[in-house]
């Protein structure tokens, strides 16, 4: 059997395998070998000093698995103040948790988190950010341009350093119901560029018109990870063009979200649909809608692992958002 390092010596240009993302029973002991990151969801999830472990402030709706990112190769991990990281097999996980009260609100906290992450990634061999997740509380509180999500967007771009100048990564930004003022941001980066994928049914988020705030959201609809065998899919909702569709109608928003996902997969050149290797996450605004969301997912993608969490979507009229991965 060849080891990972022997394979890289034989073909130095071959990309390392992308991490596999799986939902598992919470591990009884130590994290399995090759674990780059592990996520527990909600207040009942374990806490750990392992820098690779993050307790996400989103409550699970139904089953509460642990999400594991696994790479081919040895993993080393560490922490530095509010930042934690792990690297292995050419891939880097980095996370920042902070409280808005220490940074004068959501804008300052976002700028701080992105500055820390940008500086860390810029100094790393794995300096190409592929995918990023953002969780903040009370995301829809505040009117007009003062809505907290919009303040977050302004801080996010202010804190984005040079590593984001090549183009934005795929992302999700979700409202949690956990500790007041907690901001959680974590990312996946690697040692070579991926390719951004946009959705032909949707205006690119960074080109949203002024009505959505002073600072358009800085994310791509998806990233094709090197070497083009995995599509990392941003939070996808019932947005058509730049407008929210089907206000107040969950079934219609789900159907529209499904069409957006289909269009993104096609544009990314990956196979249609979601299968057993394509874990999905659904962010559900009203816990009472979980059964309807699950029924939709079961009907459309019967074999795809689904994790549902209670989360607010960044536009108040949107009831559900879905993200995930599509492995070729
Ligand atoms: C949308 O399509 C829905 O601000 O990072 C989806 C994914 C959304 C990411 C972000 C926002 C973000 O505009 C909202």
UniProtKB/TrEMBL annotation:
InterPro entries: FkbO_Hyg5-like_N, RutC-like_sf. Residues 1-11 have a biased composition (Basic and acidic residues). Coiled coil: none annotated. Residues 1-23 are annotated as: Disordered. Pfam families: FkbO_Hyg5-like_N. Residues 67-189 form the Chorismatase FkbO/Hyg5-like N-terminal domain. This is Pteridine-dependent deoxygenase. It comes from Luteibacter yeojuensis. The lineage of its organism: Bacteria, Pseudomonadati, Pseudomonadota, Gammaproteobacteria, Lysobacterales.
């Amino acid at each position: 059997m060849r080891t990972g390092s022997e394979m890289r010596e034989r073909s130095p240009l071959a990309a390392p395998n992308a991490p596999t993302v799986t939902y598992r029973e919470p591990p009884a002991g130590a994290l399995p070998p090759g674990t780059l990151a592990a996520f527990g969801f909600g207040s009942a999830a374990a806490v750990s000093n392992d820098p690779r472990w993050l307790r996400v402030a989103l409550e699970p709706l139904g089953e509460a698995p642990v999400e594991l990112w696994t790479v081919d190769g040895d993993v080393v991990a560490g922490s530095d103040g509010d930042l934690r990281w792990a690297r292995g097999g050419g891939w880097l996980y980095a996370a920042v948790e902070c409280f808005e009260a220490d940074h004068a609100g959501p804008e300052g906290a976002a700028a701080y988190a992105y500055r820390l992450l940008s500086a860390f990634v810029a100094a790393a061999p794995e300096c190409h950010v592929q995918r990023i997740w953002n969780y903040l509380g009370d995301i829809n509180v505040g009117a007009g341009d003062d809505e907290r999500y919009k303040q977050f967007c302004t801080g996010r771009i202010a804190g984005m350093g040079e590593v984001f100048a090549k183009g934005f990564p795929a992302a999700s930004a979700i409202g949690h119901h956990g500790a007041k003022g907690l901001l959680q941001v974590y990312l996946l980066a690697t040692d070579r560029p991926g390719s951004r994928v946009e959705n032909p049914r949707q205006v690119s988020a960074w080109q949203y018109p002024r009505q959505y705030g002073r600072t358009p959201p800085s994310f791509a609809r998806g990233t094709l990870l090197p070497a083009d065998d995995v599509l990392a899919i941003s939070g996808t909702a019932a947005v058509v063009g730049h407008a929210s569709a089907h206000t107040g109608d969950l079934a219609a928003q789900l159907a529209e979200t499904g069409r957006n996902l289909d269009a993104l997969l096609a544009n990314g050149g990956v196979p249609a649909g979601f299968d057993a290797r394509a874990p999905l996450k659904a962010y559900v605004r009203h816990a009472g809608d979980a059964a309807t969301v699950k029924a939709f997912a079961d009907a459309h993608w019967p074999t795809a692992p689904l994790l549902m969490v209670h989360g607010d979507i960044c536009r108040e009229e949107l009831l559900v958002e879905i993200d995930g991965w599509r492995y070729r």
